Amino acid sequence: MSMADATTPKWLNPSEMKAWRRYIVASRRLLEALDSDLEPHDVSMADYEILAQLSDAPDRRMRMSELADVAMLSRSRLSHRMKVMEKAGWVKREACPIDKRGYFAVMTPKGWKAIVAAAPDHVESVRSRFVDHLTKADQIALAEIFERVGNELRNS
To answer: How far apart (Å, rounded) are the C-alpha atoms in residues 101 and 150?
Structure first.
């Protein structure tokens, strides 16, 4: 293999480029629309995801490091969102008794009320803007595709 071959990128062919660009545009538009649809509840998509993760956790509490991982947020971004959400009264932080450096994120009753109020509109938005446009086969294919991509990204 020549040096030129080693440094030449493997450009996307037209089919690959079309798939990539359509994914980028649609995913950005979808996230913007879902975020906009949550505005009447004064909840952002990032806040909703944090509240959703906490609502599913035992005792509605989770270690901050674990929450950052499952909510796909950097620790600094989660810390910023937590400050905003604490100010709204939706969450609180509690020190971890066995790890002096660790904290739990805990959903408050006000946070529970916020997600209970927003969830019906959010699920309707997800359904009307995404799910209703997919066949059952599309849903299965997308789940498999994004599981593969997600696993690869997690392992890299």
So the answer is: 30
State pTM to two decimals. 0.85
Domains along the chain? 15-155 (1.10.10.10)
Question: Residue with structure tokens 């066949």?
Answer: 135
Q: Could you give the CA distance from residue 146 to residue 23 in angstroms, rounded to a whole number?
A: 12
Intervals of the chain under pLDDT 50: 1
Query: Which DSSP string do the residues of 4-43 spell out, in sequence order?
Result: HHHHS--PPPHHHHHHHHHHHHHHHHHHHHHHHHHGGGT-
CA distance 104 to 96: 6
